[in-house]
Design goal:
The protein is an alpha/beta fold and 403 residues long. 43% of the residues lie in helices and 15% in strands.
Length: 403
């Protein structure tokens, strides 16, 4: 039996997090030649995961450069993929999510008539500017994909409504990010050494209550981000809670962080680990850190009081730890968390962020009765996906299997 060649393409850290368990599952199958192809876009941010899972990409385009633009990433990814496709002649190209990497790889495969499998297909806001450019990317991938591997019923229904090409098929698999979350959490739980490392890393929190917050979306750059950061200051000055805030390296984020917090450095706001921390009376503090590696992020998420984020990944992962999530966006392509009661949209509105944060901080418990099941997955999504891709041909139609 001839081995199937399947190329898995990723560039950013979120892509790799959700692609990793699928690649690991593929490499178990003796009838599949699994090729992991990285653009090198977030190489430094992936090192801890590479080390934890003893992983190395088979192909690395090494495209990362300072403040690279979308056009550069798209064109260079397509050029690299064209060469890879010509040399390997794969049976499938697998892309994940809604990044420029995923869109470029899918288009390169389409041009060479190689079937595309889209992991996390069907997410929609139906607003091309929110998020930008992700909404366009995922819709465009949907036009060329042969396998739509949807995380939820709602995502699958979006694909059905768009009347995709009849030769493609739709499968509900759950979200692969939950698979990785479980793998990392288990490795941490099983390792006393990792527990000590994380305890040392976050020593400045002194086991006090804290909110984990991330904000990096392009549509939040400028005044929206200013309002978010001002809300953070109000929260910690009026409530006994800290905010742990990883700062995205994008200059559009860092410049505004410095602008808004300039007068508060070494008073209420600290770059964690760099300065002596002073008492702040009844309130809390904001601890700024460089982007956390994924294992550290999982640890912080698990130990936080709740999340404030514009990240899609944290909206999916927080429910696994029963965390309430204030979504710093006006809309979300992940409505399942809202419906289940995990997430609440507060946008970048100063007053809404402060009001809803107070409500959660002042509450003794965030859940009345039983905690809902995470609507995004059960940790077996990667196994389902590889069962599909190892058996299916592009014209093979499959019914929903996970709900």
């Amino acid at each position: 039996m001839k081995k199937k060649t399947i190329i898995f393409v990723f560039g950013t850290r979120p892509e790799f997090i959700k692609m990793l368990p699928v690649i690991l599952e593929a490499k178990k199958n003796k009838n599949i030649k699994a090729v992991a192809c990285s653009t090198g876009q977030h190489k430094d941010m992936l090192e801890s995961l590479y080390k934890m899972f003893d992983f190395k990409p088979d192909i690395d385009f090494r495209l990362m450069k300072s403040n690279q633009g979308l056009s550069y990433m798209h064109s260079e990814t397509m050029n690299g993929m064209n060469t890879v496709l010509e040399n390997l002649k794969p049976d499938w190209v697998v892309v994940q999510g809604d990044t420029t990497t995923a869109h470029a790889a899918a288009m390169a495969a389409f041009y060479q008539k190689v079937p595309v499998a889209h992991v996390e297909a069907g997410l929609r806001t139906y607003d091309l500017n929110a998020p930008f450019p992700e909404e366009l990317n995922r819709r465009a991938i949907g036009l060329v994909a042969k396998a739509h591997l949807c995380p939820t019923k709602e995502a699958a229904e979006n694909i059905r409504k768009e009347k995709i090409d009849k030769s493609s098929y739709i499968e509900i698999t759950g979200n692969t990010g939950i698979d990785t979350l479980n793998l990392v959490a288990q490795k941490t739980e099983d390792s006393p050494e990792l527990k000590r490392l994380f305890s040392d890393e976050f020593h400045y929190l002194n086991e006090e209550k804290f909110i984990l917050s991330t904000v990096h979306r392009r549509e939040s750059f400028g005044d929206p981000l200013r309002d978010v950061l001002r809300a953070f200051l109000t929260i910690v000055k009026s409530r006994p809670i800290n905010i742990l805030c990883p700062v995205h390296p994008n200059p559009n984020v860092k410049s505004i962080v410095n602008e808004i917090f300039q007068s508060q450095f070494d008073k209420t706001v600290y770059w964690a680990g760099e300065n002596k921390i002073k008492p702040t009376g009844k309130g809390g503090k904001i601890f700024l850190v460089n982007p956390l590696d994924y294992p550290s992020l999982v640890y912080a998420m698990k130990n936080s009081s709740f999340l404030m984020t514009d990240s899609g990944g944290l909206q999916e992962e927080g429910p696994s730890f029963a965390k309430k999530i204030l979504v710093l966006r006006g809309t979300t392509e992940r409505p399942e968390g809202v419906h289940a009661g995990f997430s609440k949209l507060v946008g970048t509105d100063y007053y809404k962020i402060v009001e809803e944060s107070y409500r959660l901080i002042d509450s003794d418990q965030h859940w009345a009765g039983s905690i809902p099941v995470n609507p995004y997955g059960d940790g077996k999504s990667s196994e389902r996906i590889m069962n599909i891709l190892s058996e299916a041909a592009p014209e093979y139609n499959i019914s929903d299997s996970w709900v």
